[in-house]
Here is the input.
Amino acid sequence: MGGDGNVIQYIEAGLRATGMRGKVLADNIANMNTPDFRRRAVEFEKILAQAVEDGDLEALRNFEIDVTRPMDTPVGPNGNDVDLDREVGEMIKNSAIRKTYMRLLGKVYDQMEIAIQTQR
Amino acid sequence: MAVNGVGSSVDIAVSGLRAQSQRMQVIAENLANAHTTRTADGGPYRRREVVLRAGGDGPSGVTIETVRPDMENPLQRVRMPGHPDADADGYVTMPNVSIPSEMMNLVVASRAYQANAAVLKRYQDSVDNALELLR
Here is the structure.
């Protein structure tokens, strides 16, 4: 049962990261007309995968979420680089990932409940 | 257990709704006064514009920094000899409102409003999903 302690840490880290990403995407959309605004992005998948592979429980518990401004997107006439279609696409992907983590968490809890009941 | 971020995402989307909504109000005011030659302070109406600003450091939505008169676009002098406000040469100074411009701005603001409303709906669904965990 050794690895299971990590699972909850891993899911929690994923939930925090997707939560942050959702916030960043909402902010990009809220500022789609703001002059000179550059979009932000959240990267976490590679770092999370690495932490899981290394079995690094500390890294998972204090998972650092990377919020950056990529500055690699073309800028419109008012200095704004937010592309609504892109943000919507990112948001849909993020929601799907977040939903997956939530369902996983639900499954882990269900399993724990079964384990507790079988031990009575 | 941290299921975070949803509350503040809602605030961010709402800030977008409010900003765009206020922007649309200003556009409506410009359109309504496109031909107003006499205002309370005397003189023709001058177009008003909205200055948007991203909130603090970190993602925190958008606010309207200020609503100010448009001093860049000049008022239009139009030849209307019979007009009550015509000057000695028969010219009337009209507002600097360009109706096609305002309509374009309205479309842009409206689209942004809808985008923020869609984000709000998505976060409502996200909260519902989280609540299902508790069943």
